[in-house]
Amino acid sequence: MDKHQILELLHQVKDGTAAPEEALLKLKLSPFEDLGYAKIDHHRGIRQGVPEVIYGQGKTPEQILGIVKAMSDRGAENILITRMSGDAAEFVQESIALDYHPIPKIGIVGRCKEVTAQGKIVVATGGTSDLAVAEEAALTAEVLGNEVERLYDVGVAGLHRLLANLDVLMQAKVVIAVAGMEGALASVVGGLVDCPVIAVPTSIGYGASFGGVSALLSMLNSCASGVSVVNIDNGFGAGYLASMINHIGGAV
Predict the structure, then answer these.
(1) Which pTM does this prediction carry?
(2) 3-state SS class at 107
(3) Does domain 120-247 have CATH number 3.40.50.1970?
(4) Which residue intervals define the domain PurE in the entry (predicted)?
(5) How far is residue 126's CA from residue 68's CA, in Å, rounded to a whole number?
(6) What's the pLDDT tens digit per position in 134-193?
(7) Kindly report the CA angle at 133 between 127 and 135, in degrees rounded to 5?
């Protein structure tokens, strides 16, 4: 139950189409649901405006399906499942409609494609190898009601590729810069745009990249103002934060 459903329930009590006792029972049931292996936070949408997101890695297909069904039964839309394996997706698709994206390993149930923010989020990558993390960020932002534009493979090894898209960058309300290796893309973008830049270091790179630690440290030490950094390969966190920034100031 989200805040809109609660408001509707209160209006029903007010106009007499729902009994106060019925409304009380629904509110009692809604804070969380204990499935034994998971306690689903049904009030997440009320507090944060977004339903609980399911982290698929480490969960069995049966557990993922159980959580999705419980959320769907309570009217949740745009249920996002991150780090979901192909096997888990096939299992869930046998019982419920699932929109699965294999590259970022994201599943979406009950997708509503309504855009609720006025600004645009641009997701840029240093290279094609960063695509999985970038798509995790882009799809997360889209599911949360944002218009997203992708600029892939525009890293500093060929700076002209990035500069050729300055018009796209300048129109963004938030830019997500996804890069591995030395992670220089975030600093370059940060020096070009007048909006917040969310830097995402990826684990892409040779031995001395230390699984993304080199890119992480480069991004943390960026001399460009307005650059913030999320954890290594955390496309979801970047997409979620970008959505929050993009929704500041009101929805469409």
Answers:
(1) 0.83
(2) strand
(3) yes
(4) 119-251
(5) 34
(6) 999 999 999 999 999 999 999 888 888 988 889 999 999 999 999 999 999 999 999 999
(7) 90
